[in-house]
Every structure is written in structure tokens, then in C-alpha cells.
Write a structure and sequence with these properties.
about 220 residues, alpha+beta, 10 strands, rod-shaped
Length: about 220
């Protein structure tokens, strides 16, 4: 035995390894988690980069073309020696009487009256001012004999008064608001005309009647 102090014994290596094992496990777990995240990101990017499938081409259904015109065999005509058909004169279409009647415009009441030789009349405004207006009435007897005449003028309520004069004589009366009746004094000879000059008092504007009649038929206004 030596007289010097005894050296301490070395610590065993096993406890050092046990103390470092938990850190190794933690590092392995972290590495595993990071690897899983990387794999997940790569799989998501792979799905995003997948090409969009192209749209399917349109489908066209077959269509039927226009039917070929079929020619009807000629009928009603005689066949000559070569086999060709002679056109029949009955094939020509002629306009019907009903179509020609419908295309003809219907004459107005005054035109029909003149054609029948009745009495016609025409109203024309000749002058206008603030308080009233002037007009001319021409009555024509287109019949073969003398005819009496009566003209009715239908104005709105703003026409209040009337003054009339005629070389052949005329009488004036009022029937309600704005309605005036003019009558010839004595019959108008065949083929002759009578001119009546009129002066109307009014409030507002307007110098034409809404309606004019002579012996029940419409007059010409304007």
C-alpha cells in the first residue's frame, strides 16, 4: 500500500447515454412531423397542378334537308304525239270579284252624298283673333231639284256666340253649349250654292268644330 491519496473511480458511461436518449426521441419526432408536413404540401401542390380536362366537343345532331319539290303531273290538258302536255286554258287564275271589292276604298259620307246628287257643305276658318274667329260655310245642291238645307256645327263649350249672313238668306239658332244650327231660307235651286259668312265669339282657342253635318250627312271641315 502506498501512502498517497486514492484516485476517485471513473463514472460509468451508461448513465450518460440514458440522459441523452430523450433528446434523441424528441428530435426524431420533430423530424417525422416535418417530413409529414412536407409530404402533405407536395401532395396539395400536385393536386393544384393537375391540368383541367378540356371541355367535351359539342354534339351536332343531324338535320334533315328541305324536301325535294315534287312536281305534280299536268292535269286538264291534252297530250300530243310526243307525250308533252298542252297547258289548259283553265289554269290561268283570275282575281275574284270579292277581292276587287275589298281593295276599293269606301267613300266618305260627303262623297256618297255628292254622288247621289244630294246637298253637301264645306266649313273653312278664314280669320282669328283674341276674342273670336271668322269662318265660311259653302252649301252646294247637287240634286236635280230645289232642296232645303240645315247645317249643325258642334263646337266645344268655349265657343259662345255666332253671327251669320248670306245673300240667299239664313237663320241661326242655338241648341245647347257650343251647338249652332243654320238653315237656308227657302229651297236652294238645283246645281246652285249658298255661301254663309260667320263670326264666332269664344274664350280660349280653337276655330274648327268637332263635327259638322248637313241634312244629317257629314260636312267637309278645313
Amino acid at each position: 500500500m502506498s501512502g498517497g491519496p486514492a484516485e476517485p473511480a471513473e463514472a460509468p458511461a451508461a448513465p450518460r447515454m440514458l440522459t441523452s436518449v430523450p433528446w434523441i426521441v424528441v428530435l426524431l419526432g420533430v423530424g417525422l412531423i416535418v417530413g409529414l408536413l412536407v409530404i402533405a404540401l407536395l401532395s396539395l401542390r400536385g393536386e393544384e397542378r393537375q391540368p383541367v380536362p378540356a371541355p367535351a366537343p359539342p354534339m351536332y345532331l343531324p338535320t334533315l334537308g328541305p324536301d325535294a319539290p315534287t312536281s305534280a303531273p299536268p292535269t286538264g290538258g291534252a297530250t300530243d304525239a310526243t307525250g308533252s302536255a298542252t297547258p289548259s286554258p283553265s289554269a290561268t287564275a283570275s282575281p275574284s270579284a270579292g277581292a276587287s271589292r275589298s281593295a276599293t276604298p269606301r267613300p266618305s259620307a260627303s262623297t256618297r252624298a255628292a254622288a247621289q246628287g244630294a246637298v253637301t257643305a264645306r266649313y273653312e276658318a278664314t280669320a282669328s283673333d283674341r276674342s273670336g274667329f271668322e269662318a265660311r260655310l259653302t252649301v252646294v245642291n247637287g240634286s236635280a231639284g230645289g232642296q232645303g238645307w240645315e247645317v249643325e256645327l258642334f263646337f266645344t263649350g268655349n265657343v259662345k256666340t255666332i253671327e251669320a249672313s248670306s245673300a240667299s238668306g239664313v237663320s241661326v239658332s242655338t241648341q245647347g253649349s257650343g251647338v249652332f244650327v243654320l238653315r237656308g231660307i227657302g229651297p236652294l235651286p238645283a246645281g246652285q250654292s249658298a255661301t254663309v259668312r260667320m263670326r264666332f265669339g269664344r274664350t280660349g282657342t280653337g276655330d274648327q268644330p268637332g263635327r259638322c253635318t248637313v241634312n244629317g250627312a257629314d260636312c267637309v271641315i278645313g
